[in-house]
Amino acid sequence: MSTVFPQLAWWDIADPSNSELDELARRFDLHELQIEDCRHRPQRPKAEEHENYLFAILKHVHNEGELRFDDVDLFLGRDFLINVRDRDSAMIAQVKARAEQEQITRLDRLFYLIVDEIVDGYQPVLDKIAEEIGDIEDVVLDRPEPETLARIFSLRRKLVDFRRVASGMREVINTLVRREGGVLADDLDPYFRDVYDHVIRTVDMIETYRDLLSGALDIYLSAVANRTNEVMKVLTIWGTVALPLVIITGFFGMNLKLPWVNDPYGTDYAVGLMALSTVAVLVYFKTKKWF
Fold first, then answer.
1. Strands 81-84, 10-13: pairing kind
2. pTM of the full structure
3. Which residue of 39, 58, 210, 281 is most buried, as measured by CB atoms within 10 A?
4. Quick check: 4 and 85 in contact, CB under 8 A?
């Protein structure tokens, strides 16, 4: 059974169904319900303190097209650290690189690095969402198309999922900050408070982006309504303009003796009357400032 660092008892379990997790559970007396949480994913973020170890479920974010979160489960004891994940993750490699660079020799400090790396991963995703919102705001007024509406609802769904995860992570970090004693040394309190600030900022930014998307949706609906009103105005104008023409042509189409019926210029008179009525209607609309 190998560890990530030879000098530290850190085990990285990439497959929760691996029997190695059962061996570690027996060796370090890990609770069976927490092992079950590791294997039945996804779980909500949480942190639980036991007599000899600390158990935490963290949410690692991926933004490869669709926003996706996966669980990273941590068991921290005084002489062991176990992380459980369900797929290969570059995050663990980054933590290992940081640990080597900072020459980490403490397991609780290594625990902090994993938490910090996971929370730091939220910011690039938020930056990408911010760019998408900026693009939507640029086109929502000029081109209120169904594709734009679909992008708005897709981003809102992402932010709702992100808000739920970030709120859970906020409670987890808050639990770690407010703990008394345990396997985490007190000198790590300022570091966890810094991580807590990052999570709070993440939640605040998510709320801000949700407000921006709500504003973009309102603009979209207003732009669609305005465009519909413009179309209806044009159709109404042309329908009203055509009304006198319909009346006149209907009048002269009656099988009765009518003016100009025997006049060689009768058709010209009728066309002139229709043109005059059209101009009169347009002048009336113009004076009312309807177009």
1. parallel
2. 0.76
3. 58
4. no
Residue 13 phi, psi dihedral angles, 5° rounding: -100, 110
Q: Are 60 and 72 in contact (CB under 8 A)?
A: yes
Mean pLDDT of the chain: 84
Q: Give the strands of the sheet with 46-49, arranged side by side.
A: 10-13, 81-84, 66-77, 53-64, 46-49
* The pair of three-digit structure tokens given for residue 192, joined into one six-digit string: 């966890």
Q: Encode pLDDT of 81-126 as tens digits.
A: 999 988 767 888 888 888 888 888 889 899 999 999 999 999 999 9
> How far apart, in Å, are the Cα atoms of 110 and each of 106, 174, 281?
6, 18, 81
Enumerate residues 6+ apart whose C-beta is below 8 A from 66. none
Strands of the chain (E only): list them.
10-13, 46-49, 53-64, 66-77, 81-84
Contact 277, 245 (CB under 8 A): yes
Q: What is the rounded distance in angstroms from the CA atom of residue 25 to the CA atom of residue 6?
A: 20
What is the C-alpha separation between 27 and 11, in angstroms, rounded?
13
Backbone dihedral angles phi then psi of residue 146, each to the nearest 5 degrees: -55, -30
Identify the band that residue 1 occupies on the pLDDT scale cut at 50, 70 and 90: very low
What is the pLDDT averaged over residues 150-168? 89
Which domains are present in the chain?
1-96 (3.30.460.20), 233-287 (1.20.58)
